[in-house]
């Protein structure tokens, strides 16, 4: 497999520290199942299909982990993008609880897949900490923890002293405390995707490098047209997230591309064991320290004039990157002057109600799509892959993912 460098953008820390040249085959003329997109959704879907001994081809246009999955913060959290209390306020208790349960299932699937396939992706489950930087923030954190605990989900409120005992550097004065979600996972995103694709191939899947241009119908079944030829299938699963609307017109106005920018520092002494986040801006900031001591930090979308919404550009910009540079020194005075070794960006997909979509595509018989993770796709990707693999085989959307329906009332164009 050769990499088309014109489609790369700045490479991420994860991409740079993973061999993503995976054995690929020329596009076959047919397969029982075709999966498009080499991120978490596409690789997991292909894995779950291949594991059943089914005939599956995974199509990716650049290399596995080229998209958001290979460019993200490396968190596998739990819960919806808006948080549990926010999700209840928007969707009602029943739907919020159902979605939360789906993300807990996702966490179990992630652990099971990574462990059973022996994937060395630096998987650990230290939990995540969200810093409160004002009294109001801390009151919101307390309400969010209380809402989770009331329904039996994990969550703890940390005062400043308890937080300080978990972070190996002096807290800046504005930090009031934090909420802590035990058990949330961190991973090396490049190694994770490489590992899942390798496992899918071991179970019999094929990988082809091609750009999907359009999906037609022939004799009631989908035909996937690419720049390398066409492939006919019984059913197709799209894991295209930000790019979904380019191939599935029904997702136009439903999944909107939004750029996320991010950087990493040179290795430094161990400071953060947990995944970390806060809201210095309304769009949020997050960071983790990797096993080699580097800190991967993203957010600050609010520093861009249009919050980097509705664009297909994966370049980096000064406004957001300069703002990212201020995060660690502002919160932790001893972390001034860390050297930045890499800066990059990726594309997320946002929906109007901050809940992903995983459903059949109208007017495209035999085609399903999963995407629109609103910057928080890892709590869903394994589970969406598993259920969309099931959908492709049974030719109907499983009832378990009803809250991710394209026809839910909160999802208005
Ligand atoms: C900077 C950043 C930080 C993030 N941090 C986190 C985090 O820490 N935790 C979290 O849960 N979420 C995070 N997210 C969001 C998360 O990464 C995504 O929700 C998730 O990775 C989406 O996975 P996916 O498989 O749906 O899509 P992607 O990973 O984007 O995969 C789509 C793939 O489709 C390919 N493709 C596109 N068009 C075509 C075509 N026409 N033909 C063939 N292939 C095509 C692309 O090359 C790409 O590889 C972050 C996102 C960004 C950008």
How would you characterize the overall build of this protein?
The protein has helices at residues 13-16, 40-51, 84-91, 93-116, 135-150, 160-164, 189-202, 244-247, 318-325, 327-331, 381-394, and strands at 30-36, 56-60, 75-76, 128-132, 156-159, 177-181, 185-186, 206-209, 212-218, 221-226, 229-238, 256-265, 275-278, 285-289, 295-299, 340-350, 357-360, 367-371. It is an alpha/beta fold. The chain has two domains: 5-71 and 189-255 and 353-404, 3-Layer(bba) Sandwich (FAD/NAD(P)-binding domain); 125-185 and 261-346, D-Amino Acid Oxidase, Chain A, domain 2. Flavin-adenine dinucleotide binds next to helix 2, strand 2, strand 12 and strand 16.
């Amino acid at each position: 497999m050769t990499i088309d460098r014109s489609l790369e953008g700045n490479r991420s820390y994860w991409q740079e520290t993973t061999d993503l040249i995976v054995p690929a085959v020329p596009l076959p003329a047919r397969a029982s199942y075709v999966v498009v997109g080499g991120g978490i959704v596409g690789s997991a879907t292909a894995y779950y299909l291949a594991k059943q001994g089914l005939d599956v081809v995974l199509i990716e246009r650049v290399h596995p982990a080229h998209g958001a999955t290979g460019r993200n913060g490396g968190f596998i959290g739990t819960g919806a993008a808006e948080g549990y209390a926010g999700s209840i306020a928007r969707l009602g208790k029943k739907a919020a609880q159902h979605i939360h349960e789906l993300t807990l299932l996702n966490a179990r699937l992630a652990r099971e897949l990574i462990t059973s396939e022996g994937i060395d992706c630096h998987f650990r489950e230290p939990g995540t900490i969200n810093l409160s930087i004002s009294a109001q923030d801390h009151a919101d954190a307390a309400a969010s923890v209380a809402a989770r605990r009331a329904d039996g989900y994990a969550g703890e409120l940390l005062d400043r002293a308890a937080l300080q005992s978990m972070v190996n550097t002096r807290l800046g004065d504005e930090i009031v405390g934090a909420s802590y979600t035990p058990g949330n996972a961190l991973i090396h995103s490049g190694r994770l995707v490489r590992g899942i694709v390798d496992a899918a191939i071991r179970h019999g899947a094929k990988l082809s490098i091609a750009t999907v241009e359009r999906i037609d119908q022939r004799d009631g079944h989908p035909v996937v047209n690419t720049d390398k030829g066409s492939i006919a299938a019984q059913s197709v699963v799209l894991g295209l997230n930000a790019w979904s609307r380019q191939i599935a017109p029904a997702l136009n106005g439903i999944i909107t591309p939004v750029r996320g920018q991010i950087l990493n520092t040179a290795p430094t002494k161990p400071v953060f064991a947990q995944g970390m986040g806060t809201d210095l801006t309304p769009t949020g900031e997050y960071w983790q320290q990797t096993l080699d001591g580097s800190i991967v930090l993203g957010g600050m979308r609010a520093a861009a004039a249009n919050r980097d919404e509705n664009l297909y550009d994966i370049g980096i910009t000064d406004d957001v990157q300069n703002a990212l540079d201020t995060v660690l020194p502002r919160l932790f005075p001893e972390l001034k002057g860390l050297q930045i070794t890499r800066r990059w960006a990726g594309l997320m997909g946002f929906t109007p109600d901050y809940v992903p979509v995983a459903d059949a595509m109208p007017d495209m018989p035999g085609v399903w799509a999963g995407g629109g993770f609103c910057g928080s796709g890892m709590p869903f990707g394994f589970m969406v892959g598993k259920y969309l693999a099931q959908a492709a085989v049974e030719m109907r959307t499983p009832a378990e993912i009803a809250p991710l329906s394209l026809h839910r009332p909160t999802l208005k164009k």
